[in-house]
Please model this.
Amino acid sequence: MIAALIAEIKPNSTWYLVLAALLFAIGTLGVMVRRNALVLFMCIELMLNAVNLSFVALAKEMDDINGQAVVFFVLVVAAAEVVIGLGIVVAIMRKRVSASVDDLAELKG
Amino acid sequence: MELFVFVAASIMVLAGAIGVVTRSNPVHAALSMVLTLFGVAVMFVSLEAHFLAAVQVIVYAGAIVVLFLFVIMLLGVDKAEDVHTEPLKVQRPLALIVATGIAGVLVAAMFAGRDTIASGRASIDLPTVEDSDANTRQLARLIFSDYVVAFEVTSVLLVIAVVGTVLLARKRRGEKSEVSV
Model:
């Protein structure tokens, strides 16, 4: 009886959007709390994924495949962003020992 | 069944995300991110975005996380950092409050705008083909027709990113690395 009732419940796009909002908030929390530059990049990836998830959920909701095309381009831009960001981290780490962003407070290297 | 998939995938997503934020070792954080990315891929499948689910696994879990792990190993920062000392005492509680506020504002805005979403439904008529690769075919048709210019520009973007990174990360002539690896 209860199992049949539970099987009746289908997650609609609102559920996915709430989950995307939570994922985005956790990503912003990580950006605000963490100090390691690499972990900051991972948190930015979490936020991008949250937005991707909401795009796909709304594409299903509105029966419009354009949302999925946007996600495709976001994936490409995220890949380019990670490549450049990690290149900058490697370039900085040639001069300094720690990956903490607090050590980068001075403008002059 | 759909409910079960959703609950399992959202536990994966949230547990992985919390792991990224809380784990002190960057390697563990990267592996937690894999969990999140796979959870999002599962959700893409249940939202009938099959092509994007495959790309999510290949590009994110396959390429980007491996890139992160490469850089962590290359730089030798794979030691657990001390996450218990905090230079600014107020930062963590304040960040928690702000993050909760962001989540609250997003959810509230979503519920406020839900009627707009419902009224915009089915603005474009799509051929509803019920075969397995219909999603990929529709997406390809869209990207290679309407978005073909943007598609070409992304290839230029990727080339610029690769060239720029090589330029940034290479050793300049005569420069000695101060960090001995």
In short: Chain B is about 70% helix and 0% strand. Chain B touches chain A through 86 residues (CB under 8 Å).
